[in-house]
Amino acid sequence: MKKPAIFEKVHPAIFVVVLLLIIVAVINAVRIGMRDDHHGGAVPAASSSVEYPLTVCFVDVGQGDGIVIRCKDTSLVIDGGEREAADAMVKTLRDLGVDSVDCYIATHPHSDHIGAAAAIFAAVNVKSVMTTSFSEINMPTTKAFERFQNAIDAQGSEVIFAEAGEKYRFGSLELEVFAPVEETTDYNNMSIVFRLTYGKNTFMFTGDAQKESEELMLSKGYDLHADVLKLGHHGSSDATGEAFFRAVDPQFAVISCGKNNDYGHPHREILNLLEDAEVDFRRTDVSGTVTVYGDGKNIYIKE
Length: 303
Ligand SMILES: [Zn+2]
Prior knowledge:
Layout: H1 5-9, H2 12-37, E1 54-58, E2 66-71, E3 74-79, H3 86-95, E4 100-101, E5 103-105, H4 111-114, H5 117-123, E6 125-126, E7 128-131, H6 143-155, E8 158-161, E9 167-170, E10 173-179, E11 193-198, E12 201-205, H7 211-219, E13 228-230, H8 242-248, E14 252-255, H9 268-276, E15 280-283, H10 284-287, E16 290-294, E17 299-301
Parallel strand pairs: 3-5, 4-6, 5-7, 7-8, 12-13, 13-14, 14-15
Antiparallel strand pairs: 1-2, 1-16, 2-3, 9-10, 10-11, 11-12, 16-17
Helix pairs in contact: 3-5, 5-6
The structure holds zinc ion.
């Protein structure tokens, strides 16, 4: 059989070299592709000369959760810590130039989450509030919850009851709610758990949801993957079970807890989980406020 003309003109040694070069190029391309998909290792530092469209501040509110999100003209607040944390929350809002909040998400009615709400509502306009629907018999009766309700009434904010499996849109941001799946008297497990999406950037916010809630979310078969995970319940070992953690498969994680808190948060098991998975993470008790930026493709950490 006659060889094709190209093989007759090319010396066999050159042919082998070219073939090897092609193989090396393909292997490199595959490796680069894999590196882009790989979750783990250090997240790049933000550049001070770049203005990123998405800013997510995990505010140092001591023992509690307080998160401020700004994306172009849209602003969201999640919780806010105890009453004493209000100044830190309001300062973050001011620093980001926020005077109107599109939605205040109260993950659950414990004071380390909604304690500062009234002061936040007094400082900025709050257009809507996302909260959990409680049946009459399970309605919280604490002073913190009463002050929270009064603040909503005083503002006249629209109230949105979070529904697991539903999506909500605020400007360029999408919120997909995964929990609570069902009502329980344990308010931690009534925490609103949701994923925030901006372009390809995804953040999972968990409030104080514990393993019981995580198992319900997993049983629903939700796709729980996110680039950034705010660990549940301040890094307590009663939250962030291995199956949930693997399902989220974060690139970066944040633990929001107070310095020398009474609960020993974060627990050793959770730090081991992060370290074993080689997931880059920050703790607000160690680093202070943690800021993550997004450009719709990648995330960056403010160092
Ligand atoms: Zn809490």
